Ribbon-helix-helix CopG family protein
Amino acid sequence: MAKEKITITVDPEVVAQARAEVAAGRATSVSAYIAEATVQRTVRERRARDLLDDWGPFSDHELDFARALLDGEQRTERAAS
């Protein structure tokens, strides 16, 4: 796929982390690291839109239940339908 060069501004901590990943061999370049993060976010947002399209808007109770699960809280109740 063709790539396009752009200029972005990011926090110094992000740059430092990206450079550390490159130095450790976990990314081929800072650009590749940032591009991968962008792709991951794009995929997450597309999946979230697909969920809303398939299941409709979620109630406050269902959102609270999901947040609790994601925060690691253990609950035995099930979200109301």
Observations:
- Residues 75-81 have pLDDT under 50 and may be disordered.
- The CA atoms of residues 62 and 81 lie 8 Å apart.
- The chain has one domain: 12-70.
- The chain is about 60% helix and 0% strand.
